[in-house]
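Lab notebook: predicted structure, single chain.

Context: the supervisor wants predicted structures on file for every construct in the current expression panel, including those that have not yet been purified. This is the next one on the list. No modifications to the sequence; it matches the entry in the shared construct table.
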Amino acid sequence: MKLNTYLVFDGKCAEAFKLYEKVLKGKIVFSMTHGESPMADQTPANFKDKIMHTSLQIGDAVLMGSDAPPQHFCKPQGFSVSINVTDIAEAERIYKELSDGGEVMMPLGETFWAQRFAMFTDKYGTPWMVNCERPRP
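Prediction complete. Output recorded below exactly as produced.
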């Protein structure tokens, strides 16, 4: 079994996934707009360029997403996408790039469990945690 995170956006999925691809050093392996789908003729003209489904491969993990029709979009809540790294510089880079323009709840810093930890919501509304654990003896 694999468990994947699926993010839903308010029309900014393509833009968000281009950023995630760059920051997380992944590769978008599939992307289809509503206008490219077999249901294109049933899609409103102003929604044809919105993402029906996209997949971003990051190592062994897959992050997926789409744009919700405006009447079905709900602001993300009750979860965070957690990124775990082993390098402090990588934690700092990811935090800086993903939190830019977003809302920081807990700035990147040292905690009793981690060399670096942060919690924030990016400019697209996705909640994130960046964690760089302490080395285990």
